[in-house]
Design brief:
This protein is an alpha+beta fold and 430 residues long. The protein has helices spanning 3-6, 62-69, 79-88, 113-125, 131-147, 152-164, 178-183, 186-196, 212-223, 272-284, 290-297, 329-345, 350-362, 371-383, 390-399, 403-413, and strands spanning 21-24, 30-35, 41-49, 92-97, 101-109, 202-208, 246-250, 255-263, 305-311, 316-325, 420-425. It folds into two domains: 21-224, 2-Layer Sandwich (Cytochrome Bc1 Complex, Chain A, domain 1), CATH 3.30.830; 246-425, Cytochrome Bc1 Complex, Chain A, domain 1. It has 16 helices and eleven strands. The strands form two sheets. It has a six-stranded mixed β-sheet, with helices on both faces. It has a five-stranded mixed β-sheet with strand order 7-11-8-10-9. A hairpin with a 3-residue loop joins β4 (92-97) and β5. α2 (62-69) crosses α8, α10 packs across α16 (403-413) and α11 packs antiparallel against α12 (329-345). The longest helix has 17 residues, at 131-147.
Length: 430
Amino acid sequence: MSVAENLVDTAAPANSPTTALPVTTAAGIEAWHVESPVVPMIALAFTFEGGAAQDPAGKAGCAQMLARLLDEGAGDLTSDAFQERLAARAIELSFHAGPDAIGGSLKMLVKHADEGIALLALALAKPRLDPDAIERVRGQVIAGLRYQQNDPGVLASRRFFKEAFAGHPYARPSSGTVESVTTITRDDLLAMHARIIGRGRVKVAAVGAIGAEQLAEGLNRAFGSLPEAGALKAVPRTEVQDLGRRIVVDLDVPQSVIRFGMAGVPWRDPDFIPAYVLNHILGGGAFTSRLFQEVREKRGLAYSVGTSLVSHRSAAMTWGYTATKNERVGEALSVIGDEIGRLITDGPDDDELQKAKDYLTGSYALGFDTSTKIAHQLVQIAFEELGMDYIARRNALVSAVTQVDIRRAAARTFADGRMLVVAAGRPVGL
């Protein structure tokens, strides 16, 4: 039986993520560990509290640039030498930055674990941040930003966040702008590194053919020598602003790309699971959701339409997307608003609710079909402080959702049905 299949067992064996065990190193690094000897490899995922929301004023993109530079040379190894060491052992090491965290992953064969851990330790503790690497990465980022300048989806999303969270760090694009990225200096990157990449701020998950004692030793080498991180800037709580407002980003294209949003429920909130089920019914189900059926199947207004829940440390929202001909934007938004209104007034029927719960419980195991996926799921759960047993509890939480829970979630997320809408294109009558 596979690890994924074991997720729904009440008595899962030791190599199931439902039975992840804690490991603490001599330096106090805490990790969640799933030992799985099936394949001779190890997957590691880690995340440090503090991300793009910590970017200095006027320097959006700093955290993301730092993440891209961590494997561009470290210690005595130049960028080329560092990458050659990784390639020689087929070690996969990557870093990324989001609004609230800088994280990464490491995957390697067991026989190359010492080398992989050593390179990870160097990248985290002693990134070179050489001037030539900084300028190369800066050039790549700016090229990407310029390429996106006429992308309706990117422009609609950026304008949405700018208006939804005006005056807040979440309003800034995580990748920055051409102007902001141009101003980022090596000192800015060093300061960001000192603030975020620290021993007391990391969450770690490991999956693979490694025992607890060996893992503790490896994690001590990877993270134990890091200094304590500096103080983070406070990121105040916020919520989606300007509900009911409709904004046009003028672009000479035949089809408008639409982004819309309203209030949400954070992952840590007890109402998150009911809101998650509700979202699946509205727009989260790929082919079964109300929006897919009403907007695409019945009226042919759009090729794709959907919604998802966004949960940041200091904000949550229900976020939606679609695209349609300029002359049909008003109709598409009217249909979306009507379906939200129906859920506010009537809710789903019992059969619709049960089908949503059946799908969400039955498909959950598909997110755990590789060691890397399991490690990333575990570290995200650890980051959200949901508890090591969350995976084992999650399906029962979904199954327990009632019509009362759905109505409560609808009142919190949909409220009176007003949305902030941004359309990039030349929508008629918006």
